[in-house]
Amino acid sequence: MAEPAHVRVAAVQIAPDLKSLAGTEAKVLDAIDEAAGKGAELIVFPETFMPWYPYFSFILPPVLTGAEHLRLYENAVEVPGPVTERIGAAARRHGVVVVLGVNERDHGSLYNTQVVIDASGEIVLKRRKITPTFHERMIWGQGDGSGLKVVETAVGKVGALACWEHYNPLARYALMAQHEAIHIAQFPGSLVGQIFADQIEVTIRHHALESGCFVVNATGWLSEEQKASICPDEKLRKALSGGCMTAIISPEGGHVVPPITEGEGILIADLDMKLILKRKRMMDSVGHYARPELLSLVVDDRPAAPMRTVTSGEAPVIPSLATPNLEGSKSDEADDADAHVAAGADQRVAVLRGPSR
């Protein structure tokens, strides 16, 4: 697929409907219509925007979250399912790529899921946040390496991570090594305060510089009425303020257009894709600036499964308890033992190996 020379992108900062999935879906469809009407070819929404980010889990103690957690289950999204089909139809009608953040329900579990819908209306990537952060671990299950993929879309090679996954350098490097051209970052917004907005900005600007790609980031927004409905305690409600940094960053680390830090809005920018080569000519982290003989990343991209079947005559797959050799000081016998274990092992560990001594 030929890479486009220019791409018009939109990052959407709007408030969800905290009462129903249908209400939030209507806002998503309206925003797609508006952004597409302005010529956007890629439209990005905030982290778990559908039906809403679980702000309650940040404010309430676990013993008081049961009712809201169940309500989140009742309003969560199946992927694929009716909601993604309707949004896919809108993407196909407008010929745009849409990136959604959803609370995905899979039987008895919820996941923080990023969905990339191509201009054809088809889902080309469904990935789950690999490690929910702090309070989020009470809400969502863990994703796996199958989502650490860069996908071809109508706007070029797209990769995605959610929120503090950007603090995992190996997860970021996995996407960098697949030469993402546009990186999608999604954060909840209306959380923690200005320090969170500052951290988001530093993080996405650094990734753009290090990866040599564009970053399109969308954060959510809550009105004062919505904050009061989540938390009647005015003192605690301060934790639901600030933290918004809807932004579009160039491969050179700067804002393509001024960010949105308050209120609702749609940020539009035109990306000059030639800037990727301009940046990578000087510093290509996974090319001429890499030293793979010294440092390399191993990724297990197989989907995790709670059950595996073994047919007659096959050896069972046993997860390895072997640890990475970070010091390069093991004996030859130990290396041989590890090789024997690895031959039939289900290893789920990223390994950075130094030279043997």
Automatic annotation (TrEMBL):
Domain CN hydrolase positions: 7-273
Molecular function in Gene Ontology: aliphatic nitrilase activity
SUPFAM superfamilies the UniProt entry points to: Carbon-nitrogen hydrolase
EC code(s) of this entry: 3.5.5.7
InterPro entries, alphabetized: C-N_Hydrolase, C-N_Hydrolase_sf, Nitrilase, Nitrilase/CN_hydratase_CS, Nitrilases_CHs
Region of interest: Disordered: 308-337
Keyword annotations: Hydrolase
Gene3D superfamilies: Carbon-nitrogen hydrolase
The keyword Endoplasmic reticulum is annotated on this UniProt entry: no
Signal peptide span: none
Keyword Hydrolase attached: yes
Family, as annotated: Belongs to the carbon-nitrogen hydrolase superfamily. Nitrilase family.
NCBIfam families the UniProt entry points to: nitrile_sll0784 (TIGR04048)
PANTHER family, alphabetized: CN HYDROLASE DOMAIN-CONTAINING PROTEIN, NITRILASE
Protein name: Aliphatic nitrilase
The species this protein was found in: Hartmannibacter diazotrophicus
